Structure formats: C-alpha cells, structure tokens
Amino acid sequence: MSLWRKKSIDALIASSQQGRTLKKELSALDLTFLGIGAIIGTGIFVLTGVGALKAGPGLILSFIIAGLACAFAAFTYAEFASLVPVSGSVYTYSYATLGEFVAWIIGWDLMLEYILAVSAVSVGWSGYFTSFLEGVGITIPAALTGAPGAGGVFNLPAFLIVLVITFLLSIGVKESKWVNNVMVVLKLVVVALVIIAGVFYVKPENWTPFMPMGFGGVSAAAAIVFFAYLGFDAVSTAAEETRDPGRDLPKGILWSLGVCTLLYVIVSAIVVGIVPYQQFEDHQSAPVAYALKVAGQDWAAGIISVGAVVGMITVMLVMLYGQTRIGFAMSRDGLLPKWMSSVHEKYRTPFGSTWFYGLFCAFLGALVPLDKLAELVNMGTMAAFVLISVAVIVLRRTQPDLPRKFRCPWVPVIPGLAIIFCLYLMLQLPGDTWVRFGIWLLIGLVVYFTYSRKHSNLNSASEAGKAS
C-alpha cells in the first residue's frame, strides 16, 4: 500500500513554507510571458515545414487539433495550479490525488520532457545561430557545430547557450523574468512581421487539395507539431514564486496558450498559402524564412532568423526553469537527494541543482543529434497531460469541497477530452519512440525501488510512527 500513499494538500502547502523559501516575484503578466516564452520557438520556426510535408495545407487543422488537446489539458492544469500553489506541477498534483508511485512516474516523465526539450531546442538554436554568423562572415568549424553522428564532434554553440541560461537562472528568478519578458516582446514583433509581410502573397490555390494525405496525414502532423505547444505547463512550476497563485496561475496558463494557438494557426495558413507544401522537402530547417524569400521579402526572412535565435533562447530558459522546479519539489519530498532542494542564501534559487540539470542538458545537446531528442519530448508531455486530467476527475470525486479559486468547466467532459486527444496523438508516434519511452520508465522504476521509496519523507514518517 505504500506505493499509493498520498501527501495531503495541506501538507504540500506547509512544506513549501518551511525553511529557506523561494522568492515571490511573478505576476499574471509575467506568467503569461513565461508561457509564451516557452511556447513560441522551435515549433513555429522549424516544425511548420515538417508538418506541412505530412499534412499539406491541412497543417492548419493539425495545429488546431494539437491546440485543442493542450487547451483541454490547460483547464485541468489551471484548476490544480490554483488549488495547490506549490512547485512541481503535475508531479505535485499527482502526489495529492493518485499517490506516491504515480507521482514518481509522472515526475520522472516530466524530467524527460524538460531535459530533452532544452537539449533539442539548443541544437535547433545552434543551427540558426551558426547560419546567422555565416551571414556576417564568421564560420565555426563543422566539427564544433554538430554532434557525433550528425557530421560533427561537439556542438559548441548548443553547449554554451545552455550554460549562459543556467547561469541566469541560478542567480535569480527576477533577473530571468526580465530577460524573458524582453525577448518575448521581440519575438512577438517578429511573428507579427511574418503575418504582415506574408499575408498579401498568399495564393488560395496552394490550399487545395486541403488534405492531400487524408486525415491520417493531418493526425500525424498534429502529433509532431504538438511540440510547438510545449511550455504552457511550465507556468505551473512557478507556483511558489507567484505573488497571488490562486488568481494569477490560471490566467498565465490559459492566456499564453490562447495567444500562441491563434498565432500558430494564422502563421501556418500564411506559410502553406505562399509556398506549395511539396517545396518544403528541401527547406525543413527554416520553412518560415523560406516562404518569405519566395514571396520576395528577403528583408523579413533575415529578421525571422534573428527572431528564431531569440525565440529559442526563451524556450530553453523556461524549460530549464521548469525542470529545476520539478527536481526541487521531488527532492524536498525525499524522492531525490536532498541537496537538490537546497536554496541559495543570497539568490534564493535551487542553485546547485540548477547547475546540475543545466550541465546535463548542455552535454546532451552537444553530443546527441536533434532527431533522437525531439519525438520523446512529445511522448512525455502527452503522458503528463493524461495523468493530470485523470487527477482532476479523481479529486473532484474524493474531495469535492476543497476551495478551488479556478474550476475546470464541465468535469469530467473536458478532462476526458484531454485524455482522448492526447492518447490519440500518442498513438500517432513511431513504435521506436514508445520503446525509448519504455526504457526511460524502466530506469525510473529502478531508481524508485532502490532509492526513492526508501528515502521518501512519507516513508520516514511512517517508520518513525512504527518506532514510537
């Protein structure tokens, strides 16, 4: 039965207020920018071309489907974020509703999502940054711009950018917040330029046939462009650093997802309207910039590259931030070593664990090719969304009278739709992705049964009770 032991919501909140606490710096607007910072990046600047090859103009529908899956999950996140304003996101929520074992599995799963997201985006950023340097006459040796197996030896730009972001996160959330907010404004301006510069060059005939590969192609593309929506869930990891979490967390989650979904649909419609989807075969790495070049807007194409470089930095910043807070919560509960939840006396951040995760992500991005990183991120995220949706339904049944400042509408319909959409998209991913995901979970089970179960705070309390 110890596998299903739960930590009460009161105990979760109490544990967040003990000892040296994290600094409360974030407002609803900051959280919205945090979500936009994580969401708009690789997806809109890179995956548009990959998705178009699978769905054709139906890519517009793919973004809507992926956005709906996230929207249904976002409502469940918003309810829990207002109810349990504690670091750890869905890991913490699962601990209160589904028990320690499920919480561990989902925490381990979230580590996969955030770590691989940081590493994968760092590789994409390196490609854009290298191209930008070449445009101004600076060439980095090929051996230092790719991982082994991808034409290189060590991806130095990917490694260095993660170290810079790690340093920024380690010295304080206030400093990180301002950097993120400024960069988010810049990339929103860039996205607006894409829309303004491209909308007059759309040829409606490029939208037909709308689904050349049928609905199966649209679904396959939706499973891929789902990556473009990663990040809104990272907003919930900021609970302990939010000034008024009950009010501001739901706003940050839902506002950021709403803004990004609207922009994605508009941009994808413009891109596949300017260029016949077949032409993206040779331009998958920078499809938006290519579309604007076809439209004769070379000046805008150059700005897009700069926007991509800036946009990917904010994605990495928020994802690494989310990972450090997930690890912080798991450590504080005893499931990971205690040093991972120690808070720096001056900076009020989990300083040591921030550098641990940052270095891990940096080396992963420098040594592993992009295509080996990306698909697993989607699998981990969708699994997390399924569990948070289950948890909302369970908690409404078991503790209906809890004071919820935000209530997910139409429970169990909305969480049920989140489960259905996410499971459907998971089934669209390749079989080898499922195998890798299974291997990661098996490693997690070994860690849990050899270390975490024994060192859990709940286990320690139980042992102490038996002794007395």
From TrEMBL:
Classification via InterPro entries: AA/rel_permease1, AA_transporter
Hydrolase keyword on record: no
Annotated transmembrane regions: 31-52, 59-78, 90-107, 114-133, 153-172, 184-202, 214-232, 253-279, 299-322, 354-370, 376-395, 407-427, 433-451
Domain of life: Bacteria
Molecular function (Gene Ontology), one example: amino acid transmembrane transporter activity
Entry keywords, A to Z: Membrane, Transmembrane, Transmembrane helix, Transport
One cellular component term from this protein's GO annotations in UniProt: membrane
Membrane topology category: Multi-pass membrane protein
Pfam family, any one: AA_permease_2
Main location: membrane
Annotated localization: Membrane
Protein name, per record: Basic amino acid/polyamine antiporter, APA family
Origin species: Lihuaxuella thermophila
